[in-house]
Each structure stands twice: as C-alpha cells, then as structure tokens.
Amino acid sequence: MENRRVLSGMRPTGKTHLGHIHGILENWRGLQDEYECFYFAADWHALTSEYKNTSVIKESLIEMFIDWLSVGIDPQRSTLFVQSWVKEHAELHLLLSMITPLGWLERNPTYKEQQEELGDKEVGTYGFLGYPVLQAADILMYKGNYVPVGKDQLPHLEITREIARRFNYLYREVFPLPEALLAEVPILMGIDGRKMSKSYNNAIYISDPEEVLEAKIGQMVTDPQRGYRKDPGDPEVCSVFSYHRIYTEPDLVREIDRECRRAGIGCRDCKNMLAKRLKEYLAPIKEKRNYYLNHRGEVEEIIRDGTERARGVARNTMGEVREAMEI
Ligand code: TRP
Ligand code: SF4
User: Fold this and answer.
1) CB-side exposure of 262: number of CA atoms within 13 Å?
2) Segments of the chain with pLDDT less than 70
3) pLDDT tens digits, residue range 34-50?
4) Which of 190, 220, 235, 295 could make an SS bond with 196 (beta carbons 3.0 to 4.6 A apart)?
C-alpha cells in the first residue's frame, strides 16, 4: 500500500488553460483510479517568481482548485491541500538544505533557463536557487513514490532523488526514492504555434467565454503555405490540426487530413469544426466550474479538510526525520 502514493503540485500563478488540462490535470485525474493521490497548490514555489506581486497567488489559489475539481479531480479520493498551510514543508526544506551541496543546485539546468526566461522578475535569489530543495521537501514529506510531472521537471525530480539518497545514507533509511510519471501526451500549441503558456499570451483559458474562444481559434495559425482556399494544405504543420488530433474523433480527423491535402475543406470550416468540438468538450467542465464558483465555501472546506489530512502525514514524517537526525 505504502508504495502506491502519487504526489504532485502546481503553482498558483494565473488562470488555468487548456495546456494545463491536457498536459497535467487529465493525467492526475486518471491516476486517482490506481493510486492514493496528494495534489497541492505550490504557493511558496509561486512566491519564488512572484514575490513582488504576491496578489496573483492569492487570487489564483481558490480558482485553481475550482478548476481542478471541474475537470474531475475528486476530493473523495484525493487529498487536495495548500503547501503553505502545512508549515512542516518549511521545516523539512530547511533541514534538507543543510545536506544539499550547492553544486547540485547551481548545476540544475532549469535554474539557468528559468533565470533567463523570467529575467525581468529578478530571480537571482537564495529562495529561487533552493526551489528544488523545497520541491524535494514536498515530495519526500509524503513519501511519494510517483510524481506525475512534465519533462521540464525531470531535473528537479533527479535532485529530489539525490537528496533522498543522501539523507538515507547520512542518517537512516526514511525516504523512498520517487519516480517520475511522464504524461505521454503531445504538448499543446498556443494559438501562435508555440507552446501554450500564459507568458506568451497565446493560451486558451477555461474561463474564456465562447466568443473569446471562437475569436482565438479564428486567429490560430494554419499551414502558412496555404494562402488561398484553393491551395492544398499540409495538416502536419498546422496548429488547428494538432488540436483536432486531440479533441476530435479519429474518423473525422482522418477526413480532415484527407480533405485539407486536396483543398476539399477550407481553413475557416476547419476552424469552425474545432470551435464546435472544443465547446462540447468544455461544456461539462464549465458547468461544474460555475457550480463551484457559486459555492466557494464548499471548495474552501474541501481544501481545509485535505490540508488537515496532509498535515497528519507531514507530522509523522517530521517525527521520523528528527529522530533519524537525532535533533
Ligand atoms: N515545480 C513544479 C512546477 O512548476 C511544481 C511543484 C512544486 C511540484 N512542488 C512539487 C511538482 C512537487 C511535483 C511535486 O510544475
Ligand atoms: Fe489546418 Fe484545417 Fe486549414 Fe488544413 S484546413 S491548413 S488542417 S486549418
């Protein structure tokens, strides 16, 4: 039983978009059938980049849980909680920082990358360098065996394993070594053909009203070679088609593929079909979302309950940690 635990977190730094649902949340939802899952809001991690603009964290925190619930993360089966409400994360972070060699953090490939990406937010801080140590604390606290993450998080998971190994070696075998569970899904493009991200301003949000959704699909880049309706297109290089692959039934996808290549279908029709499909896909999600938006008290209670449960586990682990370290 102990080796069936899944743990993952997401930073509350803005609105949920289709990339989150497709790349992460659908994976989380599926794992609930097989594992005991802990899913949390990594609000302290959000603080490493948003420390000057902390309001975004508070504003997106409850909304993020509402979106999780709307896509089928089930509080009856999974423990949903807020990182900063379980203060033990800070203590474990501090203790693990004592045994983490600086070199591991400085060599972390995502460290330099993110520093460049987030340049204007000034992440040359101590807290940001320690980001992976805090993440290790999150994971090890619950003795998570599997961590569903995107490829970009693999270096962090490797550091977590190294820290766990070092702790177990220095003191006593307390932590299992967690493994990544990579979602085998293609990355969702933004409407401009780059990876979907709020910082690129190319995302489709759950909260987008239908007109906005339609307008965004209208702007999506298609095969750039297809200048006129009579020109045949190449679906392989078209963002709209990459969406059809995900959201449209396979028979219709094959038909679109064929018709695009012989100019039997125009991009406008193709986009209209996609808009219709996405609206159908989002309808039940939005319906649940509206419910929870109107029942925030219920959501807050779910998170309070989950945090209480998480705290119980965290306290136990911290007891073991202090005992192992003899402190
Ligand atoms: N770093 C993760 C991200 O940006 C968020 C995160 C924080 C996390 N702690 C975690 C993910 C623990 C998995 C496990 O996506
Ligand atoms: Fe893309 Fe569809 Fe236009 Fe082909 S018809 S280029 S798949 S939008």
Assistant:
1) 5
2) 1-3, 118-121
3) 999 999 999 999 999 89
4) 190
Q: Is 226 in the pocket of ligand 2 (CB under 6 A)?
A: yes
The CATH number assigned to the domain holding 100 equals: 3.40.50.620
Q: What pLDDT is recorded for position 251?
A: 97
pTM: 0.93
Give the number of whichever ligand sits closest to the CA of residue 39: 1
pLDDT, tens digit (0-9, with 9 covering 90-100), for 296-314: 999 999 999 999 999 999 9
122 and 266 belong to one structural domain: no
Question: For atom 4 of ligand 2, which residue has the closest CA?
Answer: 260
The rounded distance, in Å, linking the Cα atoms of 303 and 311 is 12
Name the closest-CA residue to atom 3, ligand 2. Answer: 267
- Asked if residue 96 lies in contact with residue 167, where contact means CB atoms within 8 angstroms, the answer is yes
Mutate to test the pocket of ligand 1, among 16, 45, 83, 123 (most ligand atoms within 8 A of CB): 45
How far is it, in rounded angstroms, from Cα 91 to Cα 96?
9
Q: Same domain, yes or no, for 220 and 145?
A: no
> At 287, phi and psi to the nearest 5?
-65, -45
Task: Please list the helix, strand and coil fractions of the chain in percent, rounded to the nearest 5, in that order.
Answer: 60, 10, 30
Q: Are 234 and 225 in contact (CB under 8 A)?
A: yes
Tokens coding 42: 């990594």
Q: Which domain holds residue 103?
A: 5-188+295-325
| Atom nearest to 144 CA in ligand 1 | 14
CB 144 within 8 A of CB 296: no
